[in-house]
C-alpha cells in the first residue's frame, strides 16, 4: 500500500522524535517547526491534511461483541435463581468505514456532519458464525413492565406474553440479538408496534445524529470540539452539568496534547460525555503515543465523587446513589430500562457484580483507553468498551417475571470498539526510517563537503515546508544551535 498524502502531517510529528536522536537541543526547534505545520494542516477544513483523515477514518475500526449465555436457564425461570453467565465471543464486525455524510462547512468556523452506522461481519475474526445461538434475556418481556407500569396494562400484557409462549429468557442467534428479530410477543399485540427489536436495531443505514464541530481555523485549541449535537448543546437526558456535550467525538483532540490535560469526549453509545486522563506513554511501532484512560472515578458513586450526583437517576439499583458502576440510560432509550456499565461490571460495586455469576472484571481487558499522538491530537488506536444490561424487576402481574426476587441488572453483552492495527503504521515506520536515513546522509555530506554558514540556513527561516524538502536546513540549524557549532565555525 502506498503512503498517501494524509500521512504527511503525522510524519511531520515523528520528525521531532527522529531529530531528538541528535540531542536534546533539537526538540524545541523541531517542535516549533512542526508547530507551524500543525497549525496550518491540523484544522478540519476542506484541503488540509487533517480533513482527509477526518472524512474517512484512517484505520479500520472493529466492534467485537461478547454475548452472555445463560448456563442455568431453568433455575432462573423456575426458581428465580441468580443467572450463571458465560461470555461467548468475540463476534467481530467491521464498523465506521463509510465516509461522513452531509458535510457542511459553516461561516462561523464550524463544520457539521453525520456518521453513518454500518457493520459487516468478519468471520475470520470471530469464534463462530452469526447463526450461533445463545440463551439470553427476553428483551421485550423484561422491558414491558418498565414501559407500562400500570396494573391493568400488565394484566393485559401478561396474556399476550403467555399466548406467545414467551418467558424471561429466549434463545436467539447472535445476528438476531444484535441486529434485530421479530419478537413473538410484540407481534401478537393487537396495537401497532414495531415487533422487531434487537440491542442495536436499527443500525445499518442510520446515524447517531448531526454533529457540529469547530474546525480550528479560528481557534486551534478548539479543533474538533463539538459545538452542538443534534442542534443542541445539552442532551436533555440528565440534570445540570451531566447533560453537557463536552469535548470531541474521541477520534481526535485539539493538537499539542499535554499529559496533565483532561480529555473530554462525547459518546452517543452511552448517552453522555466522559473523559480520559493520562496514564502513560506507549511506544507503538516507533511512535510515542499518550495513553488516556477513562478513570474509575468517572463511574464512581456520588458519595465518592460528588460531581456524579446527576448521573444517579435510579435510586433502587444504586441504593440511594451509594453504589457505583451502572448508568441508567433509560431517558435516552425511550424509557426502556437499559443500563450501561463497563464490561463485567468493572469498577462497579460488589453488590451489583454479585447479582449474577460468572463475571470476572479486569482492567486490562475491560477498561477504555485512547492512544493519542500528542502533537497532532489524533487518536491512533483505542479500545472503547462497554456493556449493555437491562434492569430486571419483579412484576406481580406478569407470570414470566413472578419468580424474580429483587431488581437487578442483567448483562446482555459487552463490546470492544477497537482499532486492530492502525493501517498507517507501516507508512509511519517507512517514512520515519527514510527520514532517518536522509538525516544520516546529510550529516555525512555536511561533514565531507563542509559548508559556509549562509548555505546552512534555509532561505526563509520563519516558514515551514514539508520536512522532506527542507530537512537539510532543519538539521543544520539544529546542529548549529548545539555543540557542533564550534566544530563548524
Ligand atoms: C472540497 O474542495 C473540493 C475542491 O475544491 C471540492 O471539489 C469538494 O466538493 C469540496 N468538498 C466539500 C465537502 O466541500
Ligand atoms: C443528507 O442531506 C440530504 C439532503 O439534505 C438528506 O436527504 C439526507 O437524508 C441527509 N442524510 C442523512 C444521513 O440524514
Ligand atoms: C449492514 O451492511 C453491511 C454492508 O452493506 C452488510 O455487510 C451487513 O450484513 C448489514 N448488516 C445487517 C444487519 O443488515
Ligand atoms: C445461517 O442461517 C441461515 C438461515 O438458516 C442460512 O441461510 C445461512 O447460510 C447460515 N449461515 C451460516 C454461516 O451458517
Ligand atoms: C433454548 O434451547 C435449549 C436447547 O435447545 C432448550 O432446552 C431451552 O428450553 C431453550 N430455552 C428457551 C428459553 O427457549
Ligand atoms: C446546558 O447545561 C449547562 C449546565 O447545566 C447550563 O449551564 C447551560 O446553560 C445549558 N445550556 C443550554 C443551551 O441549555
Ligand atoms: C463538561 O465540562 C465541564 C467543564 O467544562 C464540567 O464541569 C462538566 O462536568 C462536564 N460534563 C460532563 C458530563 O462531562
Ligand atoms: C433510600 O432513602 C429512602 C428515604 O430517604 C429510604 O426510605 C430508603 O429505605 C432508602 N433505600 C435504600 C436502599 O437505602
From TrEMBL:
Catalysed reactions, as listed in the record: tetracosanoate(out) = tetracosanoate(in); hexadecanoate(out) = hexadecanoate(in); (9Z)-octadecenoate(out) = (9Z)-octadecenoate(in); butanoate(out) = butanoate(in)
InterPro entries tied to this protein: CD36/SCARB1/SNMP1, CD36_fam
PANTHER family associated with the record: PLATELET GLYCOPROTEIN 4, SCAVENGER RECEPTOR CLASS B TYPE-1 SR-B1
Record membrane topology: Multi-pass membrane protein
UniProt organism field: Willisornis vidua (Xingu scale-backed antbird)
Name listed for the protein in its UniProt record: Platelet glycoprotein 4
Principal location: membrane
Compartments (UniProt record): Apical cell membrane; Cell membrane; Golgi apparatus; Membrane raft
Record gene name: CD36
Record lineage: Eukaryota, Metazoa, Chordata, Craniata, Vertebrata
Superkingdom to which the source organism belongs: Eukaryota
Keyword terms: Cell adhesion, Cell membrane, Disulfide bond, Glycoprotein, Golgi apparatus, Isopeptide bond, Lipid transport, Lipoprotein, Membrane, Palmitate, Receptor, Transmembrane, Transmembrane helix, Transport, Ubl conjugation
A Pfam family reported for this protein in Swiss-Prot or TrEMBL: CD36
Family in the record: Belongs to the CD36 family.
Record field: transmembrane: 7-29
Amino acid at each position: 500500500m502506498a503512503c498517501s498524502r494524509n500521512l504527511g502531517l503525522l510524519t511531520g510529528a515523528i520528525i521531532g522524535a527522529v531529530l531528538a536522536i541528535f540531542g536534546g537541543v533539537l526538540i524545541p526547534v523541531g517542535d516549533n517547526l512542526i508547530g507551524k505545520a500543525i497549525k496550518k494542516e491540523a484544522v478540519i477544513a476542506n484541503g488540509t491534511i487533517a480533513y482527509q483523515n477526518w472524512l474517512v477514518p484512517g484505520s479500520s475500526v472493529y466492534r467485537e461483541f461478547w454475548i452472555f449465555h445463560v448456563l442455568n436457564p431453568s433455575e432462573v425461570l423456575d426458581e428465580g435463581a441468580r443467572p450463571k453467565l458465560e461470555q461467548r465471543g468475540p463476534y467481530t464486525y467491521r464498523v465506521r468505514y463509510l465516509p461522513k455524510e452531509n458535510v457542511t462547512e459553516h461561516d462561523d468556523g464550524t463544520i457539521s456532519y453525520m456518521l453513518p452506522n454500518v457493520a459487516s461481519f468478519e468471520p475470520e475474526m470471530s469464534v463462530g458464525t452469526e447463526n450461533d445461538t445463545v440463551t439470553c434475556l427476553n428483551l421485550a418481556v423484561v422491558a414491558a413492565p418498565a414501559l407500562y407500569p400500570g396494573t391493568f396494562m400488565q394484566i393485559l400484557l401478561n396474556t399476550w406474553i403467555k399466548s406467545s409462549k414467551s418467558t424471561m429468557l429466549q434463545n436467539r442467534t447472535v445476528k438476531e440479538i444484535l441486529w434485530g428479530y421479530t419478537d413473538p410477543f410484540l407481534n401478537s399485540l393487537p396495537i401497532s408496534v414495531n415487533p422487531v427489536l434487537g440491542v442495536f436495531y436499527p443500525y445499518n443505514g442510520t446515524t447517531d445524529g448531526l454533529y457540529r464541530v469547530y474546525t480550528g481555523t479560528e481557534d486551534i485549541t478548539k479543533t474538533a470540539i463539538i459545538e452542538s449535537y443534534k442542534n443542541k448543546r445539552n442532551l436533555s437526558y440528565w440534570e445540570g452539568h451531566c447533560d453537557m456535550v463536552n469535548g470531541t467525538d474521541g477520534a481526535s483532540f485539539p493538537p499539542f496534547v499535554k499529559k496533565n490535560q483532561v480529555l473530554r469526549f462525547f459518546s452517543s453509545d452511552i448517552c453522555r460525555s466522559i473523559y480520559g486522563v493520562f496514564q502513560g506513554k506507549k511506544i507503538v511501532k516507533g511512535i510515542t503515543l499518550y495513553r488516556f484512560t477513562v478513570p474509575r472515578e468517572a463511574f464512581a458513586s456520588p458519595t465518592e465523587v460528588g460531581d456524579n450526583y446527576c448521573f444517579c437517576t435510579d435510586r433502587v439499583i444504586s441504593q440511594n446513589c451509594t453504589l457505583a458502576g451502572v448508568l441508567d440510560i433509560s431517558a435516552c432509550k425511550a424509557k426502556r430500562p437499559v443500563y450501561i456499565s463497563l464490561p463485567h461490571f468493572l469498577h462497579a460495586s460488589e453488590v451489583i457484580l454479585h447479582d449474577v455469576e460468572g463475571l470476572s472484571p479486569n482492567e486490562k481487558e475491560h477498561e477504555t483507553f485512547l492512544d493519542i499522538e500528542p502533537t497532532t491530537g489524533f487518536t491512533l488506536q483505542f479500545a472503547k468498551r462497554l456493556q449493555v444490561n437491562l434492569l430486571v424487576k419483579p412484576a406481580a402481574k406478569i407470570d414470566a417475571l413472578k419468580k424474580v426476587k429483587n431488581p437487578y441488572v442483567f448483562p446482555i453483552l459487552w463490546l470492544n470498539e477497537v482499532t486492530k492495527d492502525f493501517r498507517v503504521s507501516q507508512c509511519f515506520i517507512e517514512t520515519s526510517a527514510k527520514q532517518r536515513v536522509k538525516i544520516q546522509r546529510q550529516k555525512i555530506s555536511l561533514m565531507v563537503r563542509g559548508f559556509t554558514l549562509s548555505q546552512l540556513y534555509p532561505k526563509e527561516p520563519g516558514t515551514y515546508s514539508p520536512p522532506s524538502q527542507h530537512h537539510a536546513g532543519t538539521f543544520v540549524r539544529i546542529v548549529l544551535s548545539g555543540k557542533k557549532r564550534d566544530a563548524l565555525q
